[in-house]
Design a protein that fits this description.
By secondary structure, the protein is mainly alpha-helical. The protein has 28 helices and 4 strands. It has a domain of 89 residues.
Length: 566
């Protein structure tokens, strides 16, 4: 909360904002955390939010704050074995990419010596969209770091390989001998993204790394190293078949030599060759031949997931119809219908009746919002308004304890605000009740208010197997952004609504968001001159709206009154 307050104050009192950011970071170091505790992850997320806010104003200041974490080599996540400072650095680099790609690339280059994670990969993929040559150079440097480690880091190599096949490669994590291992399926719908020259360089580097491990006596390798080496060979063989076939016989021989030394669960079943092509038809056929119902459904679900992440929703729906697990099938079909109709609405095709499709509450609201926006583009304002009003009434009549109810209402009210701001304001009380109502049980799909959700996560599974399906949301569902827009329209009414919220953290977070709109001079003409006046006189002279913000700060959690007076 202190970081949000500093963020809001930066435009009007930068010196105070800097002190608040520093104090907020210091407060996180005082949190007592035990190993493997949820507090540890919470502290990480608090620091991440703080550093990102600082970097938007002053990247160098953010870097100095990060330097204070230099000595904390606390490995938070065994799947991302780098320090907390490095994880924050990668996040800031991604945020800076659009404004300063050179500096962002330098920041990522600094992290390569410590380790390569999926965040490194995500940065490379985004950088490639802006500057392919620069991204390829950074990729080659990362590959060299991975193979120079002793022993070579196969997990990092497998992660980096997906840079060359990003559009068609699944990445997940599994365990070998109780330790994490990257698991990719390059044979499934394989499609090259990188140049053939770069692919060849990558495969040569991977072959060099595998050679070092394979020629090490088996007795000197741990079960984990044996399992990971065999898994890497099996996963990379389809790529060698296409781009470096001269290595295939040797790699296949190595793989067969390792099989007797593999733990029982990792040994291959049946006669299937590890080099077998795995395109869609073959993958579906293999699933159909599986006699165990649960295993068959898991295979189908993995295919659906791969197609969903590619945006091939029609094909995914055809495969999803084969699922026999009723719950997983209903969840997947609902997501796919949402994705398919979202695309159709964007093409100008109007749905017949969204409400009859039995979609998830947020999915249904998302389609209504997209439909209303399409109607507004055609200047069919009255129809859009009726559509939104009808669905808002439906959501309000729904289960009052639904954990995603506030998300659904946020998008609907923001879209209605563009048509009739006063009516939307009058309905904010219903959003307050949704925010204050505790859900029946924690729901992993329910984002927290303070996270400014950009998507909803649906963990869909068969038995113990879970896959993370993400549903992207539009800006209409970002609650803090929406509250800023309401505050610009009618600050007093918005502030009055916020003060009725019972949940302290939510109330404070939204209060700061509303006041930020005013302090940046976007709410009233009087306050819009405040930053300029401060520069002339050396002191901020607040208008009535800014004064109301100061009053509101005293209602923040303990410590808020001290910062208001400051």
């Amino acid at each position: 909360m202190l970081a949000k307050l500093a963020d809001a104050l930066w435009a009007v009192d930068e010196s105070l904002a800097r002190r608040l950011f520093e104090e907020a970071l210091a407060l996180t170091t005082r949190l007592e955390v035990a190993p493997n505790s949820t507090t540890r992850e919470r502290r990480y997320r608090l620091r991440q939010d703080l550093i990102r806010r600082v970097a938007r104003h002053d990247p160098e200041f953010a870097n100095r704050l990060l330097a204070r974490l230099q000595e904390e080599q606390d490995i938070l996540d065994p799947l991302r074995p780098v320090s907390e400072r490095t994880r924050h650095l990668l996040t800031v680099a991604r945020d800076m990419l659009h404004e300063n790609p050179e500096q962002a690339a330098r920041m990522v280059r600094e992290t390569l010596g410590e380790g390569i994670t999926d965040d490194t990969l995500f940065f490379l993929s985004e950088l490639r969209r802006r500057n392919p040559q620069q991204a390829d150079r950074l990729f080659e440097q990362a590959v060299q770091h991975a193979i120079r480690r002793v022993p070579p880091n196969l997990n990092e190599l497998l992660l980096l390989g997906s840079y060359l096949f990003t559009e068609r490669m699944q990445i997940s994590f599994s365990q070998i001998a109780g330790r994490p291992a990257v698991n990719v399926t390059p044979g499934l719908f394989i499609h090259e993204v990188g140049s053939r020259t770069l692919i060849r360089r990558y495969l040569d580097a991977a072959f060099h790394a595998l050679t070092q491990l394979v020629f090490t006596p088996v007795q000197r390798l741990t079960p984990y190293e044996i399992g990971l080496t065999a898994a890497a060979i099996r996963q990379l063989l389809p790529l060698y078949e296409r781009h470096a076939p001269e290595h295939v016989p040797l790699l296949t021989g190595w793989w067969h030599q390792l099989i007797p030394h593999l733990p029982e669960p990792l040994r291959p079943r049946g006669e299937a060759s590890p080099t077998e092509s795995a395109h869609l038809t073959a993958a579906v056929e293999r699933a159909r031949k599986e006699t165990h119902p649960e295993k068959r459904d898991v295979l189908y679900l993995r295919i659906v997931y791969a197609l969903y992440t590619q945006g091939n929703y029609e094909a995914a729906r055809e495969v999803a119809r084969e699922l026999t697990d009723s719950k997983a099938k209903a969840q997947v079909m609902s997501l796919l219908e949402t994705a398919i109709w979202r695309g159709r609405i964007a093409q100008g095709i109007e749905p017949s009746d969204v409400r009859s499709w039995r979609l998830d509450l947020v999915q249904e609201s998302l389609l209504i919002v997209e439909w209303a926006k399409a109607l507004l583009q055609e200047r069919r304002v009255d129809e859009a308004k009726l559509l939104l009003e009808g669905h808002i009434a439906r959501v309000l009549a729904d289960d009052t304890e639904h954990p995603l109810r506030w998300v659904a209402l946020t998008g609907l009210l923001d879209t209605l605000r563009r048509i009739d701001a006063q009516e939307a304001l009058s309905l904010l009380a219903n959003l307050a009740r949704a925010l204050d109502s505790p859900s029946r049980s924690p729901d992993p799909a329910a984002p927290r208010v303070e996270d400014a959700p950009t998507h909803v996560l649906y963990l869909i599974g068969i038995g113990k197997h879970r896959l993370p399906f993400l549903l992207a949301l539009g800006e209409e569902f970002d609650l803090e952004r929406v509250i800023k827009e309401f505050a610009r329209h009618d600050f007093e009414a918005t502030l009055a609504w916020i003060h009725h919220l019972r949940t302290e953290d939510v109330r404070a977070s939204l209060l700061i968001a509303a006041c930020q709109a005013v302090l940046h001079g976007r709410s009233t003409g009087e306050d819009s001159e405040a930053p300029r006046e401060r520069k002339r006189s050396g002191r901020l002279r607040t208008g009535p709206a800014a004064a109301r913000c100061a009053e509101g700060y005293s209602a923040l959690p303990p410590g808020g009154d001290r910062f208001a007076s400051g």
